[in-house]
Design a protein that fits this description.
By secondary structure, the chain is mainly α. It contains seven helices and no strands. The protein has one domain.
């Protein structure tokens, strides 16, 4: 943990970049493939530095994302808090999974996230996302390994990452 204290800027910077990546305008054909950056970054920190982040921060980041993205207030807070709860519950096991299994797990968690979104929208009578937006789950799973390595490199420095 002492090495993380010297790089305390990495956590807020990575969350800020994840929020900004969610706001970057994409062409219409590419928008359905946009991964849920905030969930991926939050998942990394929950797995690797659970003392620095938890359910409360997940909720706060979700409310902030709701305000920034213009989604239903509390929707992303619910989604991220659920993700954080699952990751905290199984963190001890997840840390020792090979990267390929972690990517599959992240895909499963992002799929659960899409189902929660669908459920919230159906229950409130809000239009749901078109089916092509489910491709973002696959993109998120594929981006897990490079994102994990990048954040590890930033958090630990030269010697800590692959």
């Amino acid at each position: 943990m002492s090495r993380f204290r010297g790089k305390a800027w990495v956590l807020p910077a990575s969350v800020a970049v994840a929020l900004l990546l969610g706001l970057v305008p994409l062409p219409n054909w590419l928008d359905p493939f946009r991964p849920y950056w905030l969930a991926l970054v939050l998942a990394y920190w929950l797995i690797e530095a659970p003392d620095n982040i938890g359910l409360g921060w997940a909720f706060i980041f979700g409310i902030l994302a709701d305000l920034m993205f213009g989604t239903l207030l509390g929707e992303q807070a619910l989604r991220l808090t659920l993700l954080a709860f699952i990751l905290q519950r199984f963190r001890a096991r997840i840390r020792f999974f090979p990267m390929s299994q972690q990517a599959l797990l992240m895909g499963a968690l992002l799929l659960i996230d899409r189902f929660v979104t669908l459920l919230v929208h159906v229950m409130l009578g809000v239009p749901t996302l078109p089916a092509r937006y489910w491709w973002a789950v696959l993109v998120g799973a594929l981006l897990w390994a490079p994102l994990f390595v990048l954040l590890d490199k930033l958090r630990l420095g030269k010697r800590g990452a692959l």
